[in-house]
Amino acid sequence: MEMFHLRYFVAVAQELSFTRAAARLHLATSPLSQRIKDLERELDCLLFVRAHHRITLTPAGESLLPLAIDVITRFDTLPEAVHGDAATGRHARIGIAPDVPPQLRDDILASLSRAHPDITPQLIPASTEPLRRKVIAGEIDIALVHGPVVDRGVRVRRLSTQAAGAAIARGIGFDHHRSVRLSELANLSYASIDPEAAPEVYRRTDQALTRAGVHGRIVIDGDNLAGLAHIVAAGQAFTFVGMESGATHKAFAGEPVLILPVVDVNLRLSSEVIWQAGRGVNGDIVEDLIAVAASVRPSGGVVPFPSGSAEAT
Fold it and tell me: What is the spatial distance between Cα 94 and Cα 124, in angstroms, rounded to a whole number?
């Protein structure tokens, strides 16, 4: 048994898909499947139940998963242990999603500096979904992302939330409104950046929109906030933004756009800290990072969601 066998097993167990696991590992599906079969042969037990377009863990697989994650984590921290924290200090890899508010970022970094001056943080920017994958793969220690994040491979702690509003162009019938019902926007399309940036967030957003009778969708390529602002300001669509702040909120500065509270759906925007399941214990640096992040509250409790998305509660 080699270390890569365990890494491959963990990827498949967390994705519950050979195709997604292969993409995450930058492998073809066929050799990945063969390596898992080799591991099952060596352990003399099945780790997965393979059905049509669906796989699940067997009891043996369920038992192996936390042990495999622990072994991988310990293996990956060997260089740090050999060089010694006292001599070189500790280095923290912290993922950060685009719409995490600057105040939250600054408060966490300042608190980390005060509580653990031996830790040098390195910020790694990306959208929520790529960061989730990096956390699971052990490439970063924690990530500040837009929630909710639902994944058996990570642990999640919500940091804060704020109310969301609808960004709507002036001059299309809402100029004298002080609030809006989501159902009043049914004749407009809903615009957002790529939903794959935060799949669970956009799935819930889509459900809330559909229930309110909003069926039109416009997806902007990548994370082009300027493009999102153009579409909304032109009256072709609406989107969701934090009522207080956030990168999406700032994208509409100077645009002929209203940001109105939504009164028929309770829309909340949140940020969460996520870390790999199995980490955050036994003196792991993640334990210190989680404690720091959980102790910080941004001014006004403002922590917005990803661009153009919201969770209905």
Answer: 6
